[in-house]
């Protein structure tokens, strides 16, 4: 597949790194030659210095021959214009990153496609949706819903109250048990577990289960005493905060603390139809936090543009008694630091956006795809096609690559866990977890 990525900033560079693991023909296009040099020195791809809105540059990149043109520069207008031009030159599929929420309104889908833009990526929207989902289960680090929640994957840090520590998994999650452990993060190591592996204190463990057993998972990991989020403070009033506030369920009372007075005024106007309270102040000010009753606040989210500030703010909130904290991280190098400091849930917009774009790279019927940053693993939801290899044998006979496991499937509307003796059928939607593995190697099991 020939792929052109316009923009070597955060999302573009991360996507280039992600795709360089595959056998794709990748061209990374940017006006900043220094950015291109730093990426090309490390990854197997071609770079081109130039503007994506210039026809001569697009011709030099062979946009007329590309399978997918992805525009992820920081400038929304450049992204949309370059996609329109690439499509006119012959690009088969185009993707544009945008910041204007109006452009992701479903009522505008047909207009956007008529312009020549096949897909729109809105990082703030993706981040806001992830935040709201995380708050609904305060005791969970990360949640992944399959097929509208027929299956659920929960990332949970194990504490002293966990009931299933230090026991072989073959005794804990057999074919009849209501959960499977599909990945473990232990220190800096990722484990795709087998029957002899055990869960240890402070592991981050990814459980696959069905929605009716979420309460059971909560019990066995010893998280029943965690208070659900009813009162929430958001530090930083940017686009992600505004979008998250609008998506927040009515049972969560939300306050936004923003240091910029003019931004507070804009937020008040934008959130006029909500019950969200906007406060002008510094979210790092402990006296202000106490004044806003942080002792009775179950959730704290740091969404400023400064990673260090977000980390420190979450640590402060934890010391003041907040159980659930979420930090926005722009620099992926800080992810392991945030984890070691026990920040809680970490949101990285570029990884969310890149994961959504990566989905478009695969030819099988892939419904969803994401990247579990803490375990450096891809999670994909494939649809098994009639006659495909995955439907011809039981799971234990498939010969799946090392570092890969099948967590569960959805048949019709029913979520089911998968064991070695499971027979996958055509039309099943199958959740696959891969550590340090090219998803193309898995895709071939699901296609004819």
Task: Note down, in words, how this protein is organized.
This protein has helices at residues 10-19, 33-40, 55-60, 76-89, 109-115, 123-136, 169-172, 214-220, 239-247, 261-270, 286-291, 307-319, 335-340, 349-358, 440-443; strands at 2-6, 25-30, 46-49, 68-71, 93-97, 119-121, 142-146, 151-157, 179-186, 189-191, 204-209, 231-235, 253-258, 277-280, 299-302, 324-328, 345-347, 365-372, 377-383, 404-411, 414-417, 429-435. It has 448 residues and is α/β, with parallel strands linked by helices. α2 (33-40) links the parallel β2 (25-30) and β3. Strands 3-2-1-4-5-6 form a 6-stranded parallel beta sheet, sandwiched between helices. Strands 14-13-12-15-16-17 form a 6-stranded parallel beta sheet, sandwiched between helices.
Could you provide a short overview of the structure?
The chain is built from 15 helices and 22 strands. With 448 residues, the protein is an alpha/beta fold.
Features of the shown structure:
single chain; 448 residues; alpha/beta; six-stranded parallel sheet; 15 helices; 26% strand; globular
**What is the average per-residue confidence, as pLDDT, rounded to a whole number?**
89
N/C terminus separation: 18 Å
Percentage beta strand: 25-35%
Structural class, please? alpha/beta
Radius of gyration, rounded? Answer: 22 Å
Percent helix among the residues? 25-40%
Question: What is the strand tally?
Answer: 22
Shape: globular
Biggest sheet: strand arrangement: 3-2-1-4-5-6
**Biggest sheet, in brief?**
6 strands, parallel
Count of runs of 4 or more consecutive helical residues = 15
- Spans of 5+ residues with little confidence (pLDDT < 50)? none
């Amino acid at each position: 597949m020939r792929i052109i990525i316009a923009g070597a900033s955060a999302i573009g560079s991360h996507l280039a790194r992600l795709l360089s693991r595959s056998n794709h023909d990748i061209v990374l296009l940017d006006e900043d030659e220094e950015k291109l040099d730093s990426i090309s020195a490390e990854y197997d791809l071609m770079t081109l210095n130039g503007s994506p809105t210039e026809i001569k540059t697009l011709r030099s990149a062979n946009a007329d021959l590309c399978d997918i043109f992805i525009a992820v520069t920081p400038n929304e207008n450049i992204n949309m214009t370059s996609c329109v031009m690439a499509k006119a030159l012959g690009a088969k599929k185009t993707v544009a990153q945008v910041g204007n929420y109006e452009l992701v309104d479903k009522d505008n889908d047909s207009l956007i496609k008529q312009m020549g833009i096949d897909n729109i990526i809105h990082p703030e929207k993706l981040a806001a949706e992830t935040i709201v989902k995380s708050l609904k289960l305060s005791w969970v680090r990360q949640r992944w819903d399959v097929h509208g929640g027929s299956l659920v994957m929960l990332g949970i840090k194990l504490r002293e109250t966990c009931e299933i520590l230090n026991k072989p998994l073959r005794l804990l999650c057999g074919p009849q048990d209501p959960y499977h452990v599909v990945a473990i993060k232990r220190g800096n190591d990722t484990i795709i577990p087998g029957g002899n592996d055990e869960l240890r204190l402070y592991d981050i463990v990814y459980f696959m289960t069905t929605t009716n057993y979420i309460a059971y998972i909560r019990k066995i990991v010893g998280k029943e005493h965690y208070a659900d989020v009813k009162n929430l403070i958001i530090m930083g009033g940017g686009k992600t905060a505004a979008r998250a506030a609008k998506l927040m369920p009515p049972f969560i009372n939300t306050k936004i603390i923003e240091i910029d007075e003019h931004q507070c005024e804009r937020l008040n106007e934008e959130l006029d139809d909500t019950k969200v309270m906007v406060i002008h102040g510094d979210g790092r000010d402990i006296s202000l936090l106490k004044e806003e009753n942080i002792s009775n606040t179950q959730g704290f989210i740091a969404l400023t543009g400064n990673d260090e500030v977000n980390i420190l703010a979450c640590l402060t909130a934890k010391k003041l008694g907040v159980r659930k904290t979420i930090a926005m991280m722009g620099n992926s190098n800080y992810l392991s630091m945030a984890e070691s400091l026990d920040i809680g849930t970490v949101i990285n917009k570029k990884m969310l956006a890149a994961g959504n774009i990566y989905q478009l790279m695969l030819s099988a019927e892939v419904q969803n795809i994401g990247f579990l940053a803490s375990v450096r693993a891809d999670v994909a939801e494939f649809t098994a096609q009639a006659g495909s290899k995955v439907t011809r044998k039981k799971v234990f006979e498939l010969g799946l690559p090392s570092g890969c496991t099948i967590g569960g499937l959805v048949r019709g509307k029913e979520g089911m866990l998968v064991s070695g003796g499971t027979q996958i059928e055509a039309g099943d939607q199958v959740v696959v977890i891969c550590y340090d593995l090219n998803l193309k190697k898995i895709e071939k099991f699901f296609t004819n």
